[in-house]
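Render Two-component signal transduction system YycFG, regulatory protein YycH in 3D.
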Amino acid sequence: MNQRYLERIKSTILVFLVLLSFVLTGYLWYSAPSYEENRDDDYIQPPYIGSEKDNDISTYDLTQPQQIIAHRTGQHLLIHSNEKVFQELYNMVRGVSLVDFTVVQPTPEDWNRYYNQSQASELQFPNGCTVGQLDTFFQRTTLRDESTLQALSQINRLGFFTDSKSNRVWMWFFSDDAQQVVQARVDNLTPTQLQTALNQVMPNRNPLVIPVPTNEKAPWDPMNKNIPFSHMLYLPTAPLRVNSFAYDFRTIDINTMKQWLFKDPYVTPIQLNNDELLYMYNSQDQNIYSDQIINYRKKQGMMTYTNSPTPTEKPRMLIREELNLINQFMQLHRGWTGSYVLDQLTSDKQVNTYLFRMLLRGFPVYWENEQPGNQPNTIELSVTQNSVSKYSRSLILLTGSTPEQKPNLLPAHDQLLDQLKKKKVSLASISSIYPALMGAQRNEQHILLQPVWVVKYTDGKIETISAEKEER
């Protein structure tokens, strides 16, 4: 065979091999699985924990006051958090611009003007709050920059009032524990605007209350001009009529929580005993390692998630930044299963722990034998190394409710003081008294919520006074 034929055969074979490689490549490409599609097909998002409505909130919603007291030229009225006027007054306070901060020592004349002659809204924080917490909801003023406020470890009340003498609106920051008042001028609001908002608060809609100083010395009385002011209780002139409620409930599946909190949905539990399961997972995210654990107690229906990230050199977050981090963490799985507000902040050198309490029908919710994060009424989260390091919550979720047939009456001012006197309780030992709902599991289907007075003492202890059934 001559050389020319050999070259043709080689060329033909080469072309054939090239064509065959294209065919095989195309076949492999066509028949190979799509890894991107497989990831999408394999991933099934777990169901959300709570509703979109409960989780469509801003960080400042978590730091709102528990209740507001309206002072209307000598009349004092209670405003619950579920009322429209409450939100209007709260948003008004959020938008104020504050200037001219100064420490003041109000005279009896000043106290009388505040309580009995002005138009005022008083935001109540029964457990006290820090300047860092208040910075979360003020839009136009950075309070942590004010040296006059830095000396106050706790602020119990914000008084927002008109002054006829100066024709201005002022704000008082009350530290009842330190017996100090810091005053600031509101420079973007007129007395008429505040009065218009307060005109919505009416005695036929809002309970009338009486201011009761815990040292039993009214600061507006000239006889008490040399006596430091005390905590102020606001007790109703007539019994408060409040329903009890029976709530259905269901339990959130722990596997759903695991799928949200761990990147690996296939982590299997270690059974510590008949009631307790432990899930453990080690994650890596952008060269940051963390050991994650979920401890689940089936009988109690509660879980505690812990996350121990690798220490970093990042500066510690501000309170408002940590609260924003917590809100984003909770919104990811819609973990706010109701309306919650910050009830208490506990700090140490490295960790801030935030206790959030449920608000239901305008009332804070407490529980029999309450332990933080163990019942449906509280959620506890900690922040360490700029990440959520602890998350404790009940997996019991309140659903539909039915009111009890007989409304309850919470004791009025005189009855309440008589009961405290019979118990030999000194008013000086009390920091606040406010209405709330007390929860307890009635049976396997229902949780009962009943109205109570919560009595909070200066040492942090809490006692409740029950309501009575209304006679008809």
